[in-house]
Amino acid sequence: IPPSVVVTFGITAAVAVVVLLSFTMFFNVSQADIQGCELYTYDQVLAMSGVSGGTNLLRMNADVVEKRLVEGLPYVEEAKVTKKFPDSINIELKEATKGASLEDDGRYVIISKKAVALETNVKTAAAGCPVIKGFEMKADITPGKSIESKDNLKAKIVSSLMSLLDKYELEKVSEIDITDRTDIVLRYDDRLDIYIGSSYDMSYKLEEIKAVIDKGLTDSFRGMLRYNGTDSGISAIPESAVKNREEARAAKEKLKQKTQQAEQQQSEAAITEPQPEISDQPGDEAPAEPVAAT
User: Fold this and answer.
1) pLDDT higher than threshold 70 for residue 161
2) DSSP states along 195-207
3) What is the pLDDT of residue 7?
4) pLDDT recorded at residue 258
5) Angle, CA of 256, 259 and 265, to the nearest 5°
6) pLDDT digits (tens, 9 = 90+) for 116-150
7) Which residues of 121-132 are buried (b: 16+ CB within 10 A; e: fewer)?
8) Closest CA to 178 of 163, 204, 159
9) Is residue 138 within 8 Å of residue 166, measured between CB atoms?
10) What span, in angstroms and rounded, lies between the C-alpha atoms of 171 and 208?
11) Angle formed by the axes of helices 202-211 and 152-167, to 10°?
12) 194 CB-contact burial (10 Å; exposed 0-12 / middle 13-18 / buried 19+)
């Protein structure tokens, strides 16, 4: 055998051995550094990651580990896994913050500011976060998953609102009613009911409303703000006027109901009133009127 062939074979064999050892004995994880996590313990994070002392860095897929952490730990919003050769990994986590509470048959689903479910079947709403009414859950929501509604647009509206409330610093919003998604209502600072209409151009509407609250209203103003369109602007209606309108509307509705009840009673009375009997027996007919001779 030529010497060059022997040398080549020896080098190839040596490389194969090194590669084999690299994927088996070398570069196995012996240390994991975890940062940015307060809600979960070190052991909980490591267990969910699937990384152990026998995990080989060369064979480990960092993207898969990151996905496990985000999907398996609801309060982990983002995860970044970095390999540190020869034998360690670094896990950086970003924890989710509570954004709102969805009403759900007398219980609540706590969601993040990215509209991901954090906790389900909770007895009380999250403190300091708005309560969302009229969402209509599509099905049982799993922690760690994005929320879903029977009306697909409502999930998108909630997601947008979470972002926009932060953007325009509307942290005093305590309630969001999307029962009618064409007439969305926000409760602000326990003194303003803000009607923004549909979700169309919602960013512009909230920006304008924020400007009115900051520059156009006193801190003692109580009542309603209604967005009327780009040309008509925003109406600010005092609470007293709102109450007068509501009282007038209630009185009108009460009168309407009273009139309907009276008409129904008259109709029922007419149906139950006894009718004159009509006989088929001969001789019971009324006598015919005489006909004048011509």
Assistant:
1) yes
2) EEESSTTHHHHHH
3) 45
4) 76
5) 140
6) 999 999 999 999 999 999 999 988 888 999 999 99
7) eeeebbeebbbb
8) 159
9) no
10) 16
11) 40
12) buried
Q: What is the pLDDT of residues 34-78, one digit of tens each?
A: 999 999 999 999 999 999 988 999 999 999 999 999 999 999 999
> Quick count: other Cβ atoms within 10 Å of Cβ 72?
17
- CA 238 vs CA 35, 153, 232: distances in Å: 51, 32, 18
DSSP the chain: --HHHHHHHHHHHHHHHHHHHHTTTSSB--EEEEES-SSS-HHHHHHHHT--TT-BTTT--HHHHHHHHHHH-TTEEEEEEEEETTTEEEEEEEE--EEEEEEETTEEEEEETTSBEEEEEESSPPTTSPEEES--BSSPPPTTSB--BSSHHHHHHHHHHHHHHHHTT-TTEEEEE-SSTTSEEEEETTTEEEEEESSTTHHHHHHHHHHIIIIIS-TT--EEEEE--TTT-EEEEEHHHHHHHHHHHHHHHHHHHHHHHHHHHHHHHHHHSPPPP---STT-SPPPPP----
Q: 143, 120 in Cβ contact below 8 A?
A: yes
Count the Cβ atoms, other than its own, within 10 Å of residue 74. Answer: 21
Omega of the bond prior to 276 within 30 degrees of 0, cis? no
DSSP one-letter string for 26-69: SSB--EEEEES-SSS-HHHHHHHHT--TT-BTTT--HHHHHHHH
Whole-number pLDDT of residue 14: 43
Neighbour count for residue 34 (Cβ, 10 Å): 19
Are 70 and 76 spatial neighbours (Cβ–Cβ below 8 Å)?
yes
Distance CA 233, CA 251 (A): 30
Tens digit of pLDDT for each residue in 187-244?
999 999 999 999 999 999 999 999 999 998 999 999 999 999 988 999 999 998 888 7
